[in-house]
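Trying the structure run again after the queue cleared.
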Amino acid sequence: MTVRVVLVDDQPLIRAGLRMVIDEDPGLEIAGEAGTGDEAVLLVRDLRPDVVVMDIRMPGMDGIEATRIITADPEGPRVVVLTTFDDDEHVYGALRSGASGFLVKDMALPEILAAIRVIAAGDGLIAPGVTRRLIERFARSPEPPPAPRHRPPDALTDREQQVLSLVGGGLTNHEIAARLVISVATVKAYVTRLLAKLDARDRVHLVIIAYETGLAPLPRSR
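Done. Tokens:
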């Protein structure tokens, strides 16, 4: 099944470069392009793509607001933010708005293509390094956003705790499967079970829970 992608970026050269690479991937195709958040919202409603690759800073409606509107539709596409700006406010804003992934433009193109496929398959993905900084934000904040209510770690099996620890480390389902020598389908089943057991809204909340419960140690302050 071909993944239909909408590119959203106010720089035509960026869109052209991504379009050229995506067009060469037999599993992906460009459904449309937009240069602003407003255009993106209208285009997505019309084309119904599988994945939206969204920039953040654009004229008019920015990518974070456009992501919030697009993901508010239960039948809408999944959104992966691809931006130059990987500061804490943009990361947190993008994930809070409903984005399934956060990537930076200096990543290698094959990694970006792989991330689009991961997002389309229903997984979540945050660029390496960004996950740790996201957690550092929660560790530093005197009044962090309320965490989802969840049972203590001993409510989980040893294997579920292993999977949660690896999710907290920012690993994808495929990477977790390779690490634990199990199938990707089994990993997905574990993640689904964790979401239910821990009353977590999404994968990002699982990352936070992994740190809160000590299954993934908080980074030391510098």
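The first helix runs from residue 12 to 23. Worth checking whether this holds up in the mutant runs.
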